[in-house]
Write a structure and sequence with these properties.
alpha/beta; 7-stranded mixed sheet; 4-stranded mixed sheet; 15 strands; globular
Length: about 450
């Protein structure tokens, strides 16, 4: 397939990127990771150009922040207009209408037939942190339950709630108290010989036992759940599990918090992923694609819960900044006018189709899963043992980058490739990216792992 969009003028990284990389290594700590050693010059839609003139197709989407594409013209116009009027006053000093308009729109979009309120912050971690504060204030309880493989941020509280030790937690303790981790379903890795239904029943039973063996439900303020685990490997729970957790929360007066930071804003084919499970959360955290790359986050929730905090107890200097609010309002209009929920479903169907074709060639692909355009493949040494193949994922990501495709890994053991391409990607760009992915698999695996039979 002739490359129409990817243009490689130099080796990756190119000479200009290498020069800047030397400065980066001198002045920026190694603790801040970089997936690609090139430096961006400009980006539009699903295409990214680096300082050496190399053009890439983006399947990473700024770690899920670019659902409407890079520098969408309508977002750019909104930001330019806002910047020409004012950039910052702090909502705490002098309010602005875009904050109110965005809160109203999100309150109406979020699931739940009850009055809602919305508070805005800067990052996903801040949103989760404030959801915890609000839940504790409302319930007058301290305990928080998150789940194995969950990711909620890098602040003290959200790092504590996060499951992966390295690189997120190692050496950064002590951690916040009264945080507990419950089991979360992982159908691909269920015990051998167990049906999906049996496994679902077992995980539900384990969660119920958890509330007997680990912590009393009467002490829990909130259960915080990603409707689809993001950094954990795009793990999709079954509906029965999510509904049962919601029922238990209702039974014991525990708040159910849906962490929609990576799953929201049309990524899964619905505005919010929790809608797939016919469950209504009490609180919902949002960020990433909400602002099309402009930092903004929020908590949406039942009005009586959100109002539990007294004046001055939540918020911050930059929280709900004017640029973020204008960007988010434009994003919501784009999702509706460009039918991005439907587009996500179509993208996801094509990606899964391609992944299944690759799985018929390469034994290293153990599982393909996801909802909408939130798709992942899990790589293993072989399908019998299901031993994670982290090294293979690293090689694929590197090989793809050298060929002009930006990819991301995920998973507790780093053996998952996840796809977060902009939902505005064209069909031709999508096909070219998938072709590069296949070429990368051939380069890494063909000699040792190719098979001719199906899975």
């Amino acid at each position: 397939m002739e490359k129409k969009y990817v243009k490689l003028q130099t080796a990756i990284p190119g000479p200009k990127s290498k020069e800047i990389l030397e400065q980066r290594n001198k002045y920026v700590p190694k603790g801040i990771s970089n997936n690609c050693n090139s430096f961006v010059k400009k980006a539009q839609g699903a295409l990214v150009e680096d300082v050496d003139g190399n053009v890439y197709i983006d399947f990473a989407g700024g770690i899920g922040t670019i659902n409407v594409g890079h520098s969408h013209p309508r977002v750019v116009r909104a930001l330019q207009e806002q910047a020409s009027q004012f950039i910052h006053t702090s909502f705490n000093v002098m309010m602005y209408e875009s904050y109110i308009n965005l809160a109203e729109k999100l309150a109406k979009l979020a699931p739940g037939d009850f009055d809602k309120q919305v508070a805005f912050f800067n990052s996903g971690a801040e949103a989760v942190e404030n959801a915890v504060k609000i839940a504790r204030k409302y319930t007058k309880r301290q305990g928080i339950i998150s789940f194995t493989r969950g990711f909620h941020g890098r602040t003290l509280m959200t790092m504590t709630m996060t499951s992966k030790v390295k690189p997120y937690k190692f050496g950064f303790g002590p951690f916040a108290p009264e945080v507990y981790k419950a089991p979360y379903p992982y159908v691909y890795r269920r015990p051998e010989g167990m049906s999906e239904q049996q496994y679902s029943d077992m995980i539900i039973e384990q969660f119920e036992h958890f509330l007997l063996a680990e912590v009393a439900p009467e002490t829990i303020a909130a259960v915080v759940m990603e409707p689809i685990q993001g950094e954990g490997g795009f793990i999709v729970p079954d509906t029965a599990f999510v509904k049962r957790v919601r029922e238990i929360c209702t039974q014991y007066g525990i708040l159910f918090v849906a962490d929609e930071i990576q799953t929201g804003f049309a990524r899964t084919g619905k505005t919010f992923a929790i809608e797939h499970f016919d469950v209504v959360p009490d609180l919902m955290t949002i960020s990433k694609s909400m602002g099309a790359g402009v930092p903004i986050s929020g908590v949406i929730g039942r009005a009586d819960i959100m109002d539990a905090a007294e004046v001055g107890e939540i918020g911050g200097t930059y929280s709900g900044n004017p640029l973020g609010c204008r960007a988010a309002l434009t994003v919501l209009d784009i999702i509706e006018s460009e039918n991005l929920n439907d587009r996500a479903v179509k993208i996801g169907a094509r990606v899964i189709e391609k992944m299944n074709l690759l799985a018929n060639r390469f034994e290293c692909i153990g599982d393909v899963r996801g909802l909408g355009a939130m798709i992942a493949m899990e790589l293993v040494k072989d399908r019998q043992s299901k031993t994670p193949d982290k090294e293979g994922v690293s090689k694929i990501v590197k090989a793809a980058g050298e060929r002009g495709l930006l990819l991301l890994s995920a998973g507790l053991q780093g053996n998952v490739i996840r796809f977060l391409m902009p939902l505005t990607i064209t069909d031709d760009q999508l096909e070219e990216g998938l072709q590069i992915l296949e070429e990368s698999f051939e380069a890494v695996y063909l000699n040792d792992h190719a098979i001719s039979s199906g899975r």
